[in-house]
Structures are given as structure tokens and as C-alpha cells.
Amino acid sequence: GYHDGYIGEGEVGYAGPNALARAQLAETMERLSEQAAQLEQRQQRNAGAVAAFLAAHPAVARVYYPGLPDHPGHAIAKAQQRGFGAMLSAEIAGGREAVRRLVGALRVFTLAESLGGIESLIAHPVTMTHAAMDPQARERAGLGDGLVRLSVGLEAEDDLLADLGRALDAVARG
Predict the structure, then answer these.
(1) CB under 8 Å to 137, separation ≥6 — which residues?
(2) Does an H or E element contain 151, and which?
(3) Sign of the Cα pseudo-torsion (47, 53, 56, 57, in order)
(4) Is the CB of residue 43 less than 8 Å from the CB of residue 85?
(5) Does the reported pTM lie above 0.90?
(6) Residues 115, 43: contact at Cβ < 8 Å?
(7) How far is CA 152 from the centre of its chain?
(8) pLDDT per residue over 132-163, tens digit each?
């Protein structure tokens, strides 16, 4: 039948196709926002698990992640942030050669200069992003030969931990 685009008797207001499309768009945007928040939480849970795993491994000298209670910025991050993020850094004992073995043994984490995606990535600043920097300046900036940066993604936590465990065991074996 004929529809004139008005709600009810025509006195309430216009509810034509644009109003319907706006309502559907708003509903879709709300669902997407909820899904994005769930993915962000999963990514941060993964990062927390990775940070704790690395901190307990003997091949790792130090982990930098505000979600760890012993991190100097933990209290302020907990007070000011909604989660601790999905980026962390770690010092691999044994320096550059140990990092080479680590990266060579990884299967889930991918070596990349660009961090922050939904897949798990690892970077070695000394040989990648900061390679042109003077070695003494890098050292003063806290960029030692064993430092790696990880962007933890959405893969299954067990897969991430198994990948790092296998690779770190290869580092420990020399």
C-alpha cells in the first residue's frame, strides 16, 4: 500500500527512508564499538600474559610493561588508563646474537618495524628503527643490543606463549 513517509496519522513527524537508515547506522556503529572494545580488551589481556611470561623466563633480563606491578609507572597507569595497552619491551639476555636467535625461532610473531596492528609483531630497534643512531647515544637512550619491542595481537594466548617459549628456549640453548 501507499506510505506517505509519516509516522501514525501524519502529525508525529517524518520517518522516511533517511530516518530509518540513520537508526540502522547508529545501531551498527554501537555494535562495532562494542566489538572493538572487546577486541581491545583481548589484546591487552594477551599483552599482560606475554609480559608476565617474559618476566618469568631466564632468557629475559627485564620487561617494560606498565601492567606489571613492579613497573615504575604501574600505579599511575592503573589510575589514569583503561587497561595497560598491547605494547611492551623486553631486554633479551645475550644481546644482539640472542635477539637474532629469538627472532629466527618465532613463528607467530612477525619481525616488523611497524607496530600496533592486530597481529603480533616484534621489532629490534638497534638493527631496525634506530640503526642509524650512534651506538653510545642508543645506549644512553636505553636502547641496548638485547632490547626488543613487541606489539601483541589477537591470536590465541596459548599460541603466543608457546611461540615465545620455544624461541626463548632456543636462545637459552645458544
Answers:
(1) none
(2) strand 147-151
(3) negative
(4) no
(5) no
(6) no
(7) 4
(8) 888 888 888 888 899 999 999 999 999 999 99
